[in-house]
Amino acid sequence: MTNRGVVNAEELREAVCAIVSRYQKTPQRRLLVCVAGRPGSGKTTVANILAEEARELLRKVSSDPRDHAENAVVVMPMDGYHLYRKTLHAMPNREEAIARRGAEWTFDARKLCRDLQAIRLPSETADKKGAPLYDDVFVPSFDHSVGDPKERDICVSGSAAIVIVEGNYLLYRGTPTWAEVNRCFDMGVFQACPAATCARRLCRRHMAAWGISEAEAMVRATGSDAMNGDLVETTGKNADIVLHSIESSM
């Protein structure tokens, strides 16, 4: 296992082993893992690497054919739970809401919690050996072309043994609803990354996505993004595993 240009290889290896080991001790045959980190930390990339490596390890250590399927480990992004733009425009503080989109209060945490609970709870049926079965759950993605969620765009397969959810605030417990979201997870991973590194990555990302100048992109990266990141940074203490970012051109 290489570092993949994002995080130390040894940390990745230990995290993957911990996740698979925890799954093997889980009687309900499904494990929910969250990956959180400040914007630009690399959490999306890390979540996908964890899924890929956990999938490979499961095939080696599990004798259950269900654990060998391609969808035995899946990744679910939190982006689809952004509030719609029309909802932000209807807020009394609409200008702040639009400017601060991406802050924890601009997500539909209650909807996220409902979907996570649906993913977590088995159906009323079981297989021939009495093991629990799960239903497919459809969750939203985020359509960057229109700037709003796209409902029921991602299927979390009922066959998934390990579901890795990635997003900024999944370790946040600052409100009752976000605390309930956090309780849906069996394990939490935090992707630690220096704020300055995140800002540089975000600047490049904003320039590419929006066609804006470096100066304009840096205003956003060191403004609202940084404010959100500072809050996310305080949630690292709630993680079971902390990974440390390495410099890359992400």
Automatic annotation (TrEMBL):
Task: Supply the SUPFAM superfamilies for this chain.
Answer: P-loop containing nucleoside triphosphate hydrolases
Q: Its domain of life?
A: Eukaryota
Under the heading PANTHER family, the entry gives:
URIDINE KINASE (PTHR10285)
Entry protein name: Phosphoribulokinase/uridine kinase domain-containing protein
Specify the species. Trypanosoma cruzi (strain CL Brener)
